[in-house]
Amino acid sequence: TLAPAVMRALHKNRTLRYGVPMLLLVVGGSFGLREFSQIRYDAVKIKIDPELEKKLKVNKMSLESEYEKEYPGPAQTWV
């Protein structure tokens, strides 16, 4: 039959053996990156509950405010 001879020829072909998987990886990676980057932009568009947003604004915390709570004196006492 013809099938074993064709399969042997395809198995020996370097383009099919290495090129096709590489091409699938590049094209598939492109689609995957597009989907993951789209998630980033979709997350920005999501609106949160106004009540939760107000609560988050009240609890604003910064590094400087926490430092002032810990060390209430002047910041440059080492001079």
TrEMBL record:
Its main location: mitochondrion. Pfam families: COX16. It is a single-pass membrane protein. Coiled coil: none annotated. The gene is LOC103744200. The lineage of its organism: Eukaryota, Metazoa, Chordata, Craniata, Vertebrata. The keyword Cell wall biogenesis/degradation does not apply. GO terms for cellular component: mitochondrial inner membrane. This is Cytochrome c oxidase assembly protein COX16 homolog, mitochondrial. The chain crosses the membrane at residues 15-33. GO terms for biological process: mitochondrial respiratory chain complex IV assembly. Keywords: Membrane, Mitochondrion, Mitochondrion inner membrane, Transmembrane, Transmembrane helix. Belongs to the COX16 family.
